[in-house]
Amino acid sequence: MNLTSSSLSQFNVGLSQFFAKEMVRRTKQETKETKETKETHKKKTPEPTPIQATIKRMENVKEAHMHGRLGVGKKWCAPRIAHACNKEARPGYASMPAHEYTEEPSVLLEKVRVLADLLRASEHCVVYTGAGISTASGIDDYASKGTASIATGKSSASVKYRPKGKKGLNAEPTFAHYTVSELYRQGMVQNWLQQNHDGLPQKSGYPQSALNEIHGGWFDPSNPVVPMNGSLRDDFYSWMIEEEERADLVLTMGTSLCGMNADRIVSTASNKFCQLGVGLGSVIIGFQQTTLDTISSLRIFARIDEVMLLLALEMKLNVPTTPYTFTPTKNQVYNVPYDNNGCKLSPSSTQPMMKLNLQRGAKLRLTGGPGKGYQGHVVRTSTQNEGKYSFTCQFPCTRENSKHQGKRPSLYSLGGWMIEAACRGELKMLPVVNC
Question: Are residues 68 and 129 both part of a single domain?
């Protein structure tokens, strides 16, 4: 994709305006540099002007809390307070006050350059995301508080960054989702640990086989949303532990890091770097403070889409932004290399591939999760659904610990990307089989 203000307007007005300002700034900077001699052109941190001195900023914390360990001693300016809110971001959890902060533009650019260097140096980067990466798609989060929030509030600072159109199951990916997908294609990201359920990584082209939806997924009937009193799926938990051990860098975006089990992937990478000097640690991006900021390698207080846009420019990434499309077979029957229990066939197996029937009315059985063994059927095929990228199935309620579990008929979506991945033999287990 050739980045322009016009092309970025497909996401929101705010990102388009931010890009335009950045292009003007870069043009002025290039003009200035051509006029300066090598002797006078030295990078210096500008002294705060009287105007800057009147701005309310983060205070009474160490440099590492504001900038991460790699920012200590760089004399970066403290982040501005963009929205003051003393309410707790996640009541009942290990969270911080819901104040929101933003970086000075010059500091943000320097931090993005550090981020780019970390990604280039990493051998096994895991992306860890929470609800904050999806607020620009119109999906609300839990931690943003108040109508003046620059993430989800009603002020112009927030509204211009949030689309008024498709939401929920029909929400579309943000620029950040597309950027992570491109980083994966470039070999700079190896795995994505996703707290969200929204399917936006897959809609941006990220492969299901490298995505761990640890808290459940809206487009996988065998992996329903995990309630707060629920339990993580054993196979997804084991996969998370494997990635925790392998990660030398964890890129964390849009999560309050309030003590969820999956937060361990950030704390482990951070502690390895801080205590043992092993790996590259963690990068945390978001508006709000977290309890892990002081042990992060790099802390960026900014809008996630804007950070990813600057990163794409810094790394000269060509970021495709065409949403996922599913191409169904004419008869909605798919040849997949799995057995009748949904287990993947070995390469040496002589057993014929399964013909997975997803025609309307076809009977299905769930192969995993709290609803393992539940039987249901296809209600609508992909061609009958808005967006045409998912099937709608009906099963008894699969929500763990619900009084309706196993009883009340409920509708679930099945992403077309899962079927295509299954056809290529990329999934460890089919989510559904015929019965």
Answer: yes
The answer as to whether 375 is a domain residue is: yes
Instruction: Please report the pLDDT score of residue 355 as a whole number.
Output: 97
Cα separation, 152 vs 143, in Å, equals 10
User: Are residue 224 and residue 259 in the same domain, yes or no?
Assistant: yes
**Residue 31 confidence (pLDDT):** 76
Residue 250 pairs with which residues in a beta bridge?
126, 282
Assess whether 400 and 285 both reside in one domain. Answer: no
Same domain, 216 and 282: yes
- Quick check: 199 and 218 in contact, CB under 8 A? yes
| Alpha-carbon span 93 to 159, nearest angstrom | 28
Report d(CA 59, CA 213) in Å as an integer: 36
Tokens (6 digits) for 95: 């969270």
DSSP 102: E
Do residues 124 and 224 share a domain? yes
Chain center to CA of 140 = 14
Report d(CA 119, CA 424) in Å as an integer: 29
- Low-confidence residues of the chain, pLDDT below 50? 41, 48-51
- In whole angstroms, give the CA distance from residue 20 to residue 5: 6
Q: Are strands 363-366 and 432-434 parallel, antiparallel or unpaired?
A: antiparallel
CA angle 295, 213, 353 (to 5 degrees): 140
Query: How many domains does the structure of the chain reveal?
Result: 2
Residue with tokens 């309410």: 87
What range defines the domain where residue 134 resides? Answer: 5-28+51-314
Q: What 3-state DSSP class applies to 65?
A: helix
Strand partners, 411: 394
- Angle formed at CA 388 by CA 386 and CA 394, multiple of 5 degrees: 75
Which among 248, 280, 314 is the end of a domain? 314
How high is the pLDDT of residue 26?
84
Residues 92 and 157 reside in one and the same domain: yes
CB 389 within 8 A of CB 256: no
Q: How many residues does the chain have?
A: 435
